[in-house]
Predict the 3D structure of the following.
Amino acid sequence: MSLAPYACDPARSRGRRHLEEAAPTRTEYQRDRDRIVHSTAFRRLVYKTQVFLNHEGDLFRTRMTHSLEVAQLGRSIARSLHLNEDLVEAVALAHDLGHTPFGHAGQDALDDCMGAHGGFEHNLQSLRVVDKLEERYPAFDGLNLTFETREGILKHCSKANAQRLELGEPDGIGLRFLERKQPGLEAQLCNLADEIAYNAHDIDDGVRSGLITLEQLEDVELFQRHARESLTAYPGLQGRRLLYESIRRMLSAQVYDVIAETANAIAQAGLTCANDARDLSPLVRFSPDMRDRSTELKGFLLHKLYRHPQVAQMTVQAKRVVRELFNAYRDEPAQMQAGFAARADTARAVADYIAGMTDRFAVREHERLTGNRLLA
Ligand code: MG
């Protein structure tokens, strides 16, 4: 893998919080990726909702398959730009580790429950998972990942949380939010790969579920452009193959757009090292036209899919499950696993416990504690 001078170089990593000897055959970012793949939180992603509840169908994306798709798109773009593929893969595989069960509904409900206790943000929770909550090493909590991987995982962070992080780790992971700087290019790339991935797979899952139709997608220029191209190349194409061919062409167009626009932005900026990118506005980006098209598609998915009455009905129930779980554990912490029950800060322990749950474990626990079976 040939790295550009502005790529993150594992030999120049800002390192791990707990000093460890270098591995004989792997770079530091390969090691991060391997630690993430072996973590408990990673395996749980299989049973966590992306948009559709896990048990609603076997073919819908889960957090796991979403994360794999982000890693695939990210690596593919990174290779063309001579950025560090291993770092991109590590960040992509870890970026959603902090997600609650039931997707955004779960996160919103947990944030409400934690309102008086510092709130709940899934990005910060992903960082907590790799910094604190994984219990795999004798000498430290968490996975002890490199600074660059942790920086990529913490995509967003409120000012208050950034200040809290900065207190615990001066000149560390929270500082860029206080100084309004960017993360490295590999982290920037993961953000965009995330958007490209969910836009595409949510169209696929949305049509598969019957909640959105190919006819509705005629209003979305980005999709329509590629559906037209597909029909020109394959007259009479219809149904699933038309959907896949259109999505495939749409994905390729977005990937090539990011590569061309970013290569150009990097050349214009005259970057000489990885740190140069941190002081500038984001360089990994779509062209202005593709930015508009992607934003239009996101708006379509928001209104027609994420806010579809059937999804909204699930959202109400999912929020109730999370809220009632939260109250039950707060009233009786001994109902949690011993390690969580023993912690002094009960509210945060409950949030960590619930955030770590898979959809079906949350449903079962809710039934055990309340006698009501929801979402089944
Ligand atoms: Mg994601």
Remarks:
- The chain has one domain: 10-14+24-311.
- The CA atoms of residues 132 and 177 lie 21 Å apart.
- The two ends are 47 Å apart (CA to CA).
